[in-house]
Amino acid sequence: MPSKPPVSFPSERRLLAEFGERLRLARLRRKLSATAVAQRAGISRTTLSNAEHGNPSVTLGTYLRILATLGLENDIKQLAADDKVGRKLQDLALERRGSS
Questions:
Q1: Under CATH, which architecture does the 10-98 domain have?
Q2: DSSP secondary structure of 26-87
Q3: Are the C-beta atoms of 42 and 65 separated by less than 8 Å?
Q4: Any residues with CB less than 8 A from the CB of 75 and at least 6 apart, and which?
Q5: Which residues neighbour 69 within 8 Å (Cβ) at sequence distance 6 or greater?
Q6: pTM for the whole thing?
Q7: Could you tell me what percent of the chain has a pLDDT over 70?
Q8: Pick from 59, 26, 41, 43: which is nearest to 18 by CA?
Q9: Could you give the CA distance from residue 94 to residue 91 in angstroms, rounded to a whole number?
Q10: What pLDDT, in 10s, does the model give residues 54-92?
């Protein structure tokens, strides 16, 4: 029996849909067909379509292959690069240690 897909919240679905749309626009700007990108990425056209529509079942590895096919693989380095909350929490912990 397959496991249930994870629950996705409206804000998460919106982010995935926006990301998928950016991928689709990047593909179109390069004048690449869906078939060409899918073949180069080693995925099916259905999977590419799912990614471009923000389907939450598409894996991060698949997104990376699509990004690489479009020459955008270095964009992945920007994900979670600016961890403002984590730095604030770390700074608070350091301040508490320094005051004792």
A1: Orthogonal Bundle (1.10)
A2: HHHHTT--HHHHHHHHTS-HHHHHHHHTT-TTS-HHHHHHHHHHTT-GGGGGGTT---HHHH
A3: yes
A4: 67
A5: 37, 40, 41
A6: 0.80
A7: 90
A8: 26
A9: 5
A10: 999 999 999 999 999 999 999 999 988 888 898 888 888
